[in-house]
Amino acid sequence: MKILIPAVGALLFAAASFAQTPPAAEASKGPHQRFDCSKAQDPKTCEERRAKFHERRIQRLEEVQKMHEACNGKRGDELVQCLHEHRPARGKPKN
Prior knowledge:
about 100 residues, mainly alpha, about 0% strand
């Protein structure tokens, strides 16, 4: 009887863990899966919006890289001041 209770508990735990595991196809997509614009009401507008988002994302990455290059090698308060001066503008672009 003493062995039966832990064995049943382990079996229930394994069953619960297996039930929560996503299928392999969904697990491989990851949290950042691409939205399918072919299923949208207006696929052309969806693709244009996604292209603009991608361009802004690339632009922001380039600005951050320039900021890090400008402040490379600085330490302490000097680094903080440099990062503050060279940080990219916040908010949505006015395009």
